[in-house]
Design a protein that fits this description.
Blueprint lengths: L8 E5 L3 H14 L9 E6 L1 H10 L7 E5 L15 H7 L1 E5 L2 E7 L4 E6 L2 E6 L5 E7 L2 E9 L1 E5 L7 H4 L11 E7 L10 E4 L3 E7 L6 E5 L2 E3 L2 E8 L5 E5 L5 H8 L4
């Protein structure tokens, strides 16, 4: 982040003891301003706090500098109370574009939501889901029998996508991950890498006996019949990382983790 003057800082903290202790320490040192007057948002917590902060300020595109005071901190910098304004001014920017989900329920109701990490379709009941996969109008898989399927951004490729054995995607690869969750048929299908420009349509088959939910980050829509997913490049999100600790480097490093 390049600024000639010291940025005005607002601080958002999770409700955990560690995050609240850090908030008290930083407030005493830096006299933060209200979010509506800030140049930068500092988020204290874990990746869940970062996702909530990104969604909260999505319409303003304020740069967000996270510091790890939670359980998982892939999107966060290390916590250090000293020299915070200087660290922010030296930080490197990473630009993200969210996925836009349009979910249509069995009753015909439409819901739109945005996802920084992933959009997933998940079975609701004991029976596996049956899902048709369409990419840019072409049926690529007539029937996937599975616990679910997800579309992940590069930023989200190290989250649920990785747990589902999906690929880690470098930030500048221009790709999205389409990853099955516990696929039963085709048993050996491990997913696909798709250009970020595509629209993915997921149709729930036999939804009357195999109900599914659609989830965009933490927005859930139950009993869906169809989900449309695309990257929304009209929305930009800016994350700030310390030099040598940026998201691109962390994603590359994660691929060599034991």
């Amino acid at each position: 982040m390049s600024k000639a003057s010291t940025p005005s800082i607002a601080i958002i903290a999770a409700d955990t003891p560690a995050a609240q202790e850090a908030l008290t320490e930083l407030e005493a040192l830096y006299s933060p301003v209200a979010p509506e007057k800030a140049d930068v948002i500092v988020a204290l917590g874990g990746d869940g706090t970062m996702l909530e902060t990104l969604h909260r300020f999505m319409d303003r595109n304020l740069p967000i500098y996270g510091m790890h005071r939670g359980s998982v901190g892939f999107l966060m910098n290390n916590y250090d109370a000293e020299n915070l304004p200087q660290r922010i001014m030296k930080a490197r920017s990473t630009l993200l574009h969210p996925l836009r989900m349009e979910a249509i329920t069995v009753s015909g109701e439409k819901t739109e939501a945005l996802a920084v990490n992933e959009v997933s379709l998940l079975r609701e009941a004991r029976q596996t889901a049956k899902i048709r996969i369409i990419v840019d109008g072409v049926i690529r898989m007539e029937e996937l029998i599975c616990d679910g399927v997800l579309v992940a951004t590069p930023a989200g490729s190290t989250a649920y996508n990785l747990s589902a054995h999906g690929p880690i995607i470098p930030m500048d690869a221009g790709l999205l991950a389409l990853t099955p969750i516990s696929a039963f048929r085709p048993r050996r299908w491990r997913g696909a890498l798709l250009p970020r420009t595509v629209e993915v349509v997921l149709d729930a088959l036999e939804y009357d006996k195999r109900p599914v939910s659609a989830v965009a980050d933490y927005t859930e829509v139950r009993d869906v019949a169809q989900v449309r997913i695309r990257e929304d490049r009209s929305i930009s999100l800016t994350l700030l990382f310390d030099p040598g600790h940026n998201l691109e480097e962390r994603i590359i490093t994660e691929q060599f983790a034991p």
